[in-house]
Amino acid sequence: MESVFFDQSAGTFADLGLKKSTVKHLEAVGYLHPSEIQQKFIPPAVTGADCLGQSQTGTGKTAAFMLPVIERLEDPTQDPQVLVLCPTRELSEQVAEETRKLCKDDIDIVVVVGGRPLRNQMKQVEQGVDIVVGTPGRVIDLFKRKSLSFAGLKTVVLDEADRMLDIGFRPDMEYILKNCPKDRQTLLLSATLPPEVERLSSRFMRDPIRIDISVKDVTSNSVDQFFCTVDNHRKLGLLVKLLRKEQPQQAIVFCRTRRKADELYNRFKSRIKQVAALHGDLPQAKRDRVMQSFRDRKVRLLIATDIVGRGIDVGGISHIINYDIPEHSDDYVHRVGRAGRLSSDFKGRAFTFVTKDQGGELTRIEMLVNRMIPEYTFEDFDSFEPRKRRHV
């Protein structure tokens, strides 16, 4: 796999091989200077080459992969020309929303995800569409019902490929890719590149160009990271202490389980008006309302699980608090990357609560991000149960 590093920094989108009309439209909607992933990813992708990009959410990756495919769209046809696969409904909808800003009104985009009326999505696709964005399960559902055809696809995008593999979408992804045209362009974006992602790319991509935005650069430059050692039953007290001291503008508290997220929400809802929970057990309509309130800054403290947290793409989040250390080290990168986003003028702050028996998990995270994470302590808070004096 070829590695590509561009020595010269592109100052504007005009330097990336985009059409003048595209650059003019981007300027009109406020896109003036490309991010690093956009500088590196757009030039090879716009030529039609297969590209594998390592970049986490919040670095401008949606524009990095959508601008090239928009450039390569031909005259509208009945069947879609572009298919974008995402791990969650929330991320699918955000990718579509961002794409609509990037392109002109004459491009049709349809989102196909679970939790939405199937018949409406079938009707929208059957009426003709340029770009389909969706989750693998619903995409296959429409394909098997013959509402969605892959025959005209020119580009397939795998967004957050590592997460799709993590949550069990491997068979669906492989089924879709096997049924797509052999001569398609494939673009793969992933925050991390574990062996499973590498195997997927080697099997379904043609001599992909690799664009590497390393994890350590993303996390260390945009977020100040700390860990707090604490007994499990004293986490709640530590969280309250931390929130009082830090006074976050907007924060996400990540939990491993839906039950824990609900438990924390019930503890805080009587104390804080601007608090909400977000996890997979909530009805889709409720999740949508919570996400919109979070984007509108009506929710200041969001308590979320990982599977939904991947769909959170909001600028200006000041704090990330890992109430539970991530089960997988890669999830740490995704969680922490939500602070200190492109649209924010300040560095984010991330805190991870670590119990005495989780030292090994913290070490694995430090190895992944290639840095030592300092400890954060409070002089007036006892994180551990005092040892009982033994009577002789």
TrEMBL record:
Pfam families attached to this UniProt entry: DEAD, Helicase_C
Q: Which InterPro entries match?
A: DEAD/DEAH_box_helicase_dom, DEAD/DEAH_RhlB, DEAD_box_RNA_helicase, Helicase_ATP-bd, Helicase_C-like, P-loop_NTPase, RNA-helicase_DEAD-box_CS, RNA_helicase_DEAD_Q_motif
Q: Give the residue interval(s) assigned to the motif Q motif.
A: 11-39
Q: Which top-rank group of organisms is this from?
A: Bacteria
Keywords for this entry?
Answer: ATP-binding, Helicase, Hydrolase, Nucleotide-binding
Return the Gene3D superfamilies for the record: P-loop containing nucleotide triphosphate hydrolases (3.40.50.300)
Where do the Helicase ATP-binding domain residues begin and end? 42-211
> Which ranges carry the Helicase C-terminal domain?
235-392
What GO terms are given for molecular function?
ATP binding; hydrolase activity; nucleic acid binding; RNA helicase activity
What's the EC number here? 3.6.4.13
Q: Where is the DEAD-box RNA helicase Q domain?
A: 11-39
SMART domains in the cross-refs: DEXDc (SM00487), HELICc (SM00490)
Q: Please name the SUPFAM superfamilies in this protein's record.
A: P-loop containing nucleoside triphosphate hydrolases (SSF52540)
A GO CC annotation recorded here is:
cytosol
UniProt enzyme class: hydrolase
Supply the PROSITE patterns for this chain.
DEAD_ATP_HELICASE, HELICASE_ATP_BIND_1, HELICASE_CTER, Q_MOTIF
The family assignment reads:
Belongs to the DEAD box helicase family.
**What is the recorded name of this protein?**
Putative DEAD-box ATP-dependent RNA helicase
Q: Which organism is it from?
A: Rubinisphaera italica
